[in-house]
Amino acid sequence: MKNIPVGSFPCKCGKTHTNPTRIMIYDEDGLEQLPKILTDITTRRVVYLFADHRTYNVAGRRAETSLQKAGWSVKTIIIPDTDQGFPSCDDLTFEKIKPMVKNPDILLAVGSGVINDLTKWIAFDLNKPYAVLATAASMNGYTAANVAPSLKGVKSIVYAQAPVAVLSVPSIIENAPFELTAAGLGDVLAKPISTADWLMNHILFNEYFCPQIAEMITAIEPSYLNHPEDVRDRKPQAIAALYQALIYSGLAMTLVGTSAPASGGEHMLSHTLDMMSSLDGVPHDLHGRQVGLGTIFAAALYDRIFQIESPKIFPMPVDIDRQFWGKLTSSVSEQYAAKQPHLKIMQEKLSTPAAWNDFLTAVKTKIRSPKEIKNCLQRAYVARCFADIHCSRDRLRLAVLHMHEIRKRCTVVDLAWTLGILPNAADDLIDQWLTP
User: Fold this and answer.
1) Average confidence (pLDDT) over 337-358
2) Cβ–Cβ < 8 Å for 379, 372
3) pTM, to two decimals
4) Which residue of 8, 57, 79, 235 pairs with 87 in a disulfide if CB–CB is 3.0 to 4.6 A?
5) What are phi and psi of 202, to 5 degrees?
6) Integer CA distances (angstroms), 74 to 29, 36, 68, 267, 377, in order
């Protein structure tokens, strides 16, 4: 992996960024290096190791043994599966697990999404450092400072802390269940959309934007975007490039202190499907696989937007669909109410030709077409339509029509509503881009 300064460093954007992750290792002897790395971080030797039963068998037991041989006291906590067959990162799990952690020196996550997020969240709450032993190229949260838990049923963002070290063993990453690698591809393909949404917020609301961080993974993209078959075939170079892109995507969020560099309107579809599952118990798919579909849909929205020469502004709904959200109404309503001032500014600014032209000129160069994104997912044999994520068309349509309600930050989804593309074109876009 290329060198990124550790600690604080000045950027051309005028800000000083801080990278708290001291060590990033992608090497076959990563597990053997673990004891020395943790010893360099803390002088005492009590570590709490978090895993689920799968990641414990893949790497946790080896990590536990390696640390114990080096004189570490290892307290292992296995995060249990929920009724849906996998662990959950939510406030209930957090409150259950945190009291089990008593006077640690450092915490170690062995796993990927949920395990990493829970460990990070608990470490931050206890003001302790943590490291992660990654087990799959499945998501971009390894180096991110934020956590994406469900709070009172609403998918949320909680600021925490990035790990002091990220270790990974190529053979473990390459041989992870392919649906996890497929989820990683879906997650990293979101980058052009999230960058465009970030830039949109910069143009319309003067949100901070850093061009250098926005382009962090641009040079890596061809390795998996142009040759997705290599990801499908688990070729080491392609898997390494995908993993590296995920690491830098997460680091981009840490460097700017928000999720903006890696999460935009494309993520809203996945979060909404997750929240719907909490309402009716219907299982959802892996986050990154759902994000892949969200990226196709968001790119299709941008494609429609770029065809508009002179925008006509449509009023957005003044409230959420309370019947749809049921027990989550209060939490979702709070987010949507907080977005209303920004929606008003968006409508006012986009009514002026100069602002519209500035927006088009800046954002058009960041977007990849929905055809290109879907083709990449198709060639990699990963999820690209609603049937692939075990979701009905009706359920996906409900998610599409309600995903603008769940976050206070504006995305391309809100822009599409403001321009009258949604809800009117929802069915056409689903049929054209997300139907088998």
Assistant:
1) 94
2) no
3) 0.92
4) 79
5) -65, -45
6) 20, 15, 7, 36, 41
